[in-house]
Known about the structure:
Blueprint: H1 2-23, H2 27-38, E1 40-41, E2 63-65, E3 72-78, H3 84-89, E4 95-98, E5 111-115, E6 118-121, E7 136-138, E8 160-162, E9 169-171, E10 184-186, E11 191-193, E12 208-210, E13 232-234, E14 241-242, E15 256-258, E16 263-264, H4 270-273, E17 280-282, E18 289-291, E19 301-306, E20 311-314, E21 325-330, E22 335-339, E23 359-361
Parallel strand pairs: 3-5, 4-6, 5-7, 7-8, 8-10, 9-11, 10-12, 12-13, 13-15, 14-16, 15-17, 17-19, 18-20, 19-21, 20-22, 22-23
Antiparallel strand pairs: 1-4, 2-3
Amino acid sequence: MEVTGVYLVALVVIAAVSPAVVNSCPPSDREALLAFKSALTEPYLGIFKTWTGTDCCSNWYGVSCDPTDSRVNDIILRGESEDKIFERAGRSGYMTGSLSPSLCSLDRLTTLVVADWKGISGEIPACLTSLPHLRILDLIGNQIAGKVPADIGKLEKLTVLNVGDNKITGEIPASIVNLRSLMHLDLSNNGITGVLPADLGKLTMMSRALLNRNQITGAIPVSISGIYRLADLDLSMNRISGSIPAQLGSMPVLSTLNLDSNQLTGEIPASLLGNSGLNIVNLSRNSLEGYLPDVFTPRTYFSVLDLSFNKLKGAIPKSLTAARYIGHMDLSNNHLCGSIPMGFPFDHLEASSFTNNDCLCGSPLMRVC
């Protein structure tokens, strides 16, 4: 009886203690989070005031854990949010400091979002590339400097790499093409230099590639045309030169193509303007030459077609009147000549869409043919 009694008592103790053990994050994860917190200062919202107690899986703002083993899975801290803590403060977030390498010891981390805090500086810890389960890395909207880690390609499960709107410099790492699971790439509005990797087309899962507002040079890699799922490509406001690969016009899913404000030369590929899937095309502020391809059909549907500030010559194709829809079109500041076709879409466009050409005439210009 005594043995049975002791056994029952032991069961009660285990039952009482076990849930706390299972549901509480490991001390090592907690220490890593506290080191991450200590490298940052958030003066207005008080989100780190919730990071108290021994269990970082319970009510620590922005932290979530795997329910099976209580390891930290996600850190999601956004400075722009509709969360109630922002509503009460009546303001967006602001945070200074840097990203602590202590994050690298969270080896079960799948999501790291520290976005839109405006004041976080320092560099991306290189050791983040050692996190085998990381799927989302979102550091947009800070003051992070330095380079994208050279071995970023080690993150085989990464689906989102978003470091736009920072102060990142250096070249795009060659290893980036090894991110075969990558779907969303945003390196925009930084100080990135060098050329686009020639084999960027290896990122076959990618649907968005935003590399605008950098100092990227060289040509557009033809391999990009092999990214079957790519819907949004933005290379605008760089120093990209050479011609536009005709193969871009054969991409089946591409709907937005922004190549404006570069140093592109050559002619506009007929395949590009003849791609009925393209909805937004901006090729303005380059040095594109030749004639406007006469390839418009009843399947043509452009919300935006901006070809302004180039060196295009000849007449405006009359086939444009056959287009199903053209919202905004800008052909200004070229060397176009001849009469502006009548009817849709020209009847709803303003004169500014045609000004500063060599000899265009007709409505909506005041120049009579």
